[in-house]
Automatic annotation (TrEMBL):
The lineage of its organism: Bacteria, Bacillati, Bacillota, Bacilli, Bacillales. GO terms for biological process: transmembrane transport. This is ABC transporter permease. The keyword Transmembrane applies. Gene3D superfamilies: MetI-like. Pfam families: BPD_transp_1. It comes from Paenibacillus elgii. Keywords: Cell membrane, Membrane, Transmembrane, Transmembrane helix, Transport. Residues 74-277 form the ABC transmembrane type-1 domain. Its main location: membrane. It comes from the Bacteria. One of its GO terms (cellular component) is plasma membrane. InterPro entries: MetI-like, MetI-like_sf.
Amino acid sequence: MKKASASWQVFNAANLIFLTLLGLAMFLPFLGVLAQSFSSSEAVIAGKVWFWPVDFTWINYQYVFSDASIWRSFGVTVYITAVGTLINLIATASLAYPVSRQEYVGRKLVVVMVLVTMVFSAPLVPNFILMKSLGLTNTLWSLLLPGAISAFNFFIMRSFFMQIPSEIIDSGRIDGCTELRMIWSIVMPLSKPVMASLGIFYAVGHWNTYMNALYYINNPALRPLQVKLRQLIDANEINIDPSASQFSSLAHMDPEGIKMATIIIATLPIVLIYPFLQKHFVKGMMVGSVKS
């Protein structure tokens, strides 16, 4: 085995150091928020908490878990993430697959139309008027339908479909498969990597839904978790009943610990899902981005 040159070893060492520092720069703020969420309000206000809890307590999470409005917003976010991601994948695949096949006559026109949407986008006011005329304002459909297909994700999925050998598609047709049966039984099993990759992109987008919810949702019961989190942080909408003995120690304190606990709860689920899809994510990004 040929030994790596000195310059290559220096490059690898420098690259390792840079990536380590970059990883720490991303992880340490999250660790600080986690530490504050498990610390007492006195310690947080005094600035004693860095990367390890001070005066360890569960009271911040107990308050968050007892707040029905936070759970309602959490349920809305879970719903729009699950249903929205499913809609996104179905809609994107339904458009990307036919455009990827040579026998589809109008594929170039469709690609150009999708490309135009990446360059030009409608202003906010016409979008709002359209949503209102369709009766979608103050409904969760306003958070699901407008972004059903991402142009960027469309091109990734189209590139992946184009790499499926035509012989496999032709063999399915020879065996008598209808187009829908062929897509379900042949194309979809081969597309798990790209589906997992784009599913993560779409799911993260829905989980972090914020601007559309501000524009189209006025009903407090339909506000997703990110909007609720913004209200807690910016507007200090944390009302602690002093008569509740369980939370009496928080009644006259700055609720920074509660805010941090809410941030952790809003962040952790999407972070925990990624490791299970990492293998498919990496493979989908590599295969779907190279055209042979």
